[in-house]
Specification:
This protein has 480 residues and is mainly alpha-helical. It has a domain at 273-278 and 304-381. The protein is built from 20 helices and five strands. The protein has helices at 2-46, 54-60, 62-69, 86-94, 103-112, 122-131, 133-141, 163-189, 193-211, 218-221, 225-239, 247-266, 270-283, 290-303, 308-319, 325-338, 345-350, 356-367, 380-409, 419-425, and strands at 430-431, 436-437, 439-442, 448-456, 468-474. The strands form two sheets. A three-stranded antiparallel β-sheet has the order 3-4-5, with helices on one face. A two-stranded antiparallel ribbon has the order 1-2. The longest helix has 45 residues, at 2-46. It is globular, with a radius of gyration of 29 Å.
């Protein structure tokens, strides 16, 4: 009887002690969780520091604010869309007020201009483009200006002190650049070939303007607008024969291609952008309160610095600055193997069960996972986009040069022998993925060439494979 009593007493004391330990752990855990949340907010706020005022920004980046200053106007007439159609249903469901002051509504309407089953009424379209002739004026007058460049040592700028003004500028630039794209396609439809060429260059100019706003970093060098430009450029430089039908259009065509080469040269490079992004990490912790600094220091002592993978990889990439993209790709693959992806701390906590076993499983996970860094951030997807965008831009530009060469010489260029052609095409003739000239092969009848890169395109879920990036170019039909 005495032994049973002592055993129960021991078990009782153990359970009390265990409950106390779990209670204390819960308090500590809640305190750390609260501090981590507070620290995240403080670090995010620090990323918006170091502002310049709006007037200083306008001096540094005139193209950006020129585009932002353009205002799209809409005819007073009702939208000529089919009643009861899919597009009208979408507008009624998404934009009840149909207010042109609504950025989303404006973007939707601009995107629908000239599109089948959307806005095709020519009277409305003529009125719309006449009202917005200021865009055409800017496209024409900006054509001969050099592209905006940036010193990689410039102060990093994200948002100026008057952040609301910057936000409005950013939204205006997104919508206004889509307007330039629409003008380019309409120019082709109306056979205004000179305006189409100048619109292509204006689209490049203004899409680049946002990318050089402050230090080149990973968040602004991936120019996704160039995916859209790719289709426009193919229509202008690879499909339209008017530009190759005489001396005057040939000269204008070549001049636009040379501007595209200039654009390639002014684009920020990936290695510098990667390095600059690491400098931003240092600013995250400046100005943190003592409790946030203490929490971060404690977490880093236990788990290690969550930014080590990123900083270490950035140094390796920057040491290879100027190397082919394949070298960068190799470094990132090796970094991913060294720093594999980990499960998300937040998700694991959210989906932890209420039972004791689930709690202990999460406890084991929490001991080994930094709450601020659930994944080792390696920018492999950013590099993949950068390579894809850059390669396709070069291919279309080189294809345009090849068609121009054929129109003048009645043959395709040889990248090993035609030194003058290589000099004019410049970086457009070089496959930046491998650092060598692109490979050009001719069809059996000589009417078509295929320009091929060593870089692979995106994975095709239909064919279940990924092919090399390549472009087919057909000889011009027009005779000089």
């Amino acid at each position: 009887m005495s032994k049973n009593y002592n055993l129960k007493k021991i078990i009782s004391k153990f359970l009390v002690a265990a409950s106390l330990v779990l209670f204390l752990f819960s308090l500590i855990f809640i305190l750390i969780a609260y501090n981590v949340s507070s620290m995240r907010a403080a670090m995010n706020a620090n990323n918006k520091g170091g502002f310049e005022n709006i007037e200083k920004l306008k001096q540094l980046y005139p193209d950006y604010f020129t585009l932002a200053s353009l205002e799209i106007r809409f005819p007073a007439a009702a939208l000529p869309i089919a009643a009861g159609g899919t597009f009208e249903s979408y507008l009624n469901k998404t934009y009840h007020g149909k207010d042109t002051a609504d950025w989303g509504y404006r973007y939707t309407i601009i995107s629908a201009l000239g599109e089948h089953f959307k806005i095709t009424d020519e009277t409305y379209l003529n009125s719309f483009y006449d009202m917005n002739s200021r865009f055409v004026e800017e496209i024409v007058t900006s054509y001969d200006r050099p592209f905006t460049t940036n010193d990689s040592n410039a102060q990093f700028i994200t948002h100026p002190a008057d952040g609301k003004v910057y936000e409005q500028c950013w939204l205006a630039c997104v919508i206004n650049n889509s307007m330039i794209l629409k003008i380019a396609y309409r120019a082709l439809d109306k056979k205004d070939y000179a305006l189409a060429l100048k619109s292509d260059i204006a689209y490049l100019r203004f899409s680049l303007a946002a990318g050089v706003l402050g230090d080149p970093c990973l968040s602004n060098i991936i120019n996704y607008d160039l995916y859209t430009n790719y289709n426009l450029a193919k229509q202008i430089y690879l499909n339209e024969d008017f530009y190759l039908s005489g001396e005057a259009p040939l000269n204008k065509f070549k001049n636009a291609l040379l501007k595209r080469v200039e654009f390639i040269k002014t684009r920020p490079d990936f290695a510098t952008a990667f390095k600059n992004t690491t400098a931003m990490l240092a600013g995250k912790t400046s100005g943190l309160k003592w409790k946030d600094k203490a929490t971060l220091y404690t977490l880093n002592l236990w788990y290690g610095d969550p930014d080590v993978a990123f900083i270490e990889t950035a140094k390796l990439i920057h040491s290879k600055k100027g190397a082919p993209y394949s070298e960068f790709e190799k470094i990132l693959v090796e970094a991913r193997l060294k720093y594999p992806l980990k499960k998300s701390f937040t998700n694991e906590l959210a989906y932890t069960g209420d039972d004791l076993l689930s709690f202990f499983k999460f406890l084991k996970f929490a001991v080994n996972t930094h709450p601020l860094a659930p994944n080792a951030y390696i920018p492999d997807q950013e590099l993949a986009h950068f390579i894809n965008i850059d390669t396709k831009f070069r291919l279309v530009t080189l294809g345009g040069f090849a068609r121009h060469f054929y129109a003048v010489n009645k043959r395709w260029p040889d990248l090993e022998k035609d030194a003058g052609f290589i000099k004019e095409a410049g970086p457009a003739a070089i496959d930046a993925y491998c650092g060598r000239p692109f490979i050009i092969t001719q069809s059996a009848n000589g009417d078509t060439i295929t320009i091929k890169s060593a870089a692979r395109d995106w994975y095709d879920h239909v064919s279940k494979k990924t092919d090399f990036i390549e472009l087919s170019v057909t000889k011009p039909k027009a005779e000089m």
